[in-house]
Amino acid sequence: MLDHFFAHPFLFPLLLIASSCLYLVIRNLLEYRAITKLGSFAPRAHSYLPFGVDILYRTIRHSHNNTDIDFWEWLFAWSPNKHSKTVEVGLARQRWIFTADPGNIKAILATQFQDFGKGKRFHEDWKPFLGDSIFTTDGQQWHDSRQLIRPQFAKNRIADLEIFERHVERLMNKIGGRGEEVDIAALFYRFTLDSATDYLLGKSVDSLDNPHAEFASAFAEVQKVQNMITRSGEFNALIPKGTYWAGLKIINAFVEPFIEQVLRLNVSYLKEKTNPSFLDALAATGIRDRNAIRDQVIAVLLAGRDTTAGALSFTFQELSAQPEIVRKLRREILDKIGASKPPSYEDLKSMPYLQHVMNETLRLYPSVPFNVRQALCDTTLPTGGGPDGSQPIGILKGTTVGYSAICMQRREDLYPPPSADFPTVSKYSPERWDKWTPKTWTYLPFNGGPRICVGQQFALTEMGYTIVRILQRFDRVSKYWQDGGAQFKSEVILSPKNGVQVGFWEREIG
Ligand code: HEM
Question: Where does heme bind (predicted)?
Fold first, then answer.
């Protein structure tokens, strides 16, 4: 037998290739049978190279050019039915589904919540940064974190606006009042870091006053590398991680003394404490595990900081381009509380135009534009399959499903036709909210279902408070940023690509 191999040197490699091909054919057949037993296939985006290498290259190119939205639209164009935005792709031998259909997103997030989760891979990739926190886990582990964290965002906890006042005052002191050019986005990122650390730990990192503070730089670096790790999937071992480990050391060294301090206090004292920080409140529940506390605090910091800063930045980008919105918003603010009194939680809620401005920002610029879930069992998605795109799609355990709030919220077919009251979808117009409410599951800046953003009210309060205080002091906003080109980038969280250069004009007193 061995003689044959030596006599025919190509026999062994040929046999190897043939058996690999046979294995692949059988595997694909079995997979095909399993999927068709559950439902249909979605229209497929074709690749012209093995393993979808051309599509992988396309993803990387679009991500590099900050045109991810164009990549998703390119994918959706493979669907023959223009009202179905669900397609599938084979990437590195894995089947991926991409969707911007409200029915499918509702299934992933709510009606079939148990079937889809963040998955093992996400947990592993994020473990060094966020451990076993609310952000990285599924099932019981996630549920326990959610139970622990949710009460900290109850109305009575977020209606205390003292913290925002402290930091917004500092923010405004960095803005000249004679139209001087300032990158307001850069200031908002420092402002939300300061207010979030103050709220979470009871002590701010004060990055508005010390922009190069070690913590701020370390946090930014860790986020950047984490994003690269997440995007590179199977190949993440190739990402250099030196600055990542160094950054984590700095973050932990900053947070740990606060944890040590709070753990020295007894639970009954913490329960009675007036104005407790998030950390105090966590420790008051009796939790004593240092790592668990650290993970939850960092997770909430990550979830709450860039999201709110980005949304504030886009708001002022749009306000600077449309002075009539600034005038109308100021009128509402002055009528409601005047030019100097800080707004209360109730004041903010009773300013409809302010609420419409924030809704409109999050419609065009949802902070988490692209998101992903993994099928935790064999299941289906309700729509997008079959020749006319109306059949359920069969989904096998482990399939990755990408879904996009930004693509869905920019779909013209999900809105009323344009009219005098309702401008085209791409226009920033808070007025459209006067007589219109989006159909359910078509507007999801905070996600939906059991995993809906736990900080939604905190975020809207912080944003509203900041907008009101700025417009009480300044009555005009000049636009210095340039039109054209990609205006945003999406490294997990959407942010303005080149900052937001504007100028503020202090109102004349007297
Ligand atoms: C404009 C501001 C914000 C937006 C648009 C936003 C949006 C979102 C979205 C889309 C998710 C779902 C992520 C996922 O499951 O994959 C989420 C989750 C979360 N958000 Fe927010 N967020 C904002 C601000 C905040 C703030 C200020 C906090 C806290 C201070 C916060 C805390 C959280 C937490 C802890 C989760 C995880 C919830 C869970 O998995 O159960 N967010 N947010």
Answer: 453
| DSSP one-letter code for 418 | P
Residues 6+ apart with CB under 8 A from 171: 187, 188, 190, 191, 208, 466, 470
User: In this structure, what DSSP letter does residue 104 have?
Assistant: H
Question: Atom 39 in ligand 1: which residue has the minimum CA distance?
Answer: 451
* Per-residue model confidence (pLDDT) at position 426: 95
**CA-closest candidate to residue 55, choices 14, 8, 89:** 89
- Residue pair 25/69 in contact (Cβ under 8 Å)? The answer is no
Q: Letter for the amino acid at 398?
A: G
Predicted pLDDT at 413 = 95
> Encoding tokens for residue 70?
């164009």
- The pLDDT value recorded for residue 510 is 42
pTM of the complete model beyond 0.95: no
| CB distance 311 to ligand 1 below 6 Å | yes
ipTM: 0.99
Q: Name the residue with the closest Cα to ligand 1, atom 21.
A: 453
CA 64 to centroid of ligand 1, rounded, Å? 25
Crossing angle of helices 290-321 and 352-364, rounded to 10° = 100
Smallest CA separation from ligand 1 atom 30, residue = 304
Point out the residues of the chain with pLDDT beneath 50: 510
Tokens representing 339 are: 């030019």
Cβ of 308 below 6 Å from ligand 1: yes
Is the CB of 302 inside a 6 Å radius of any atom of ligand 1? no
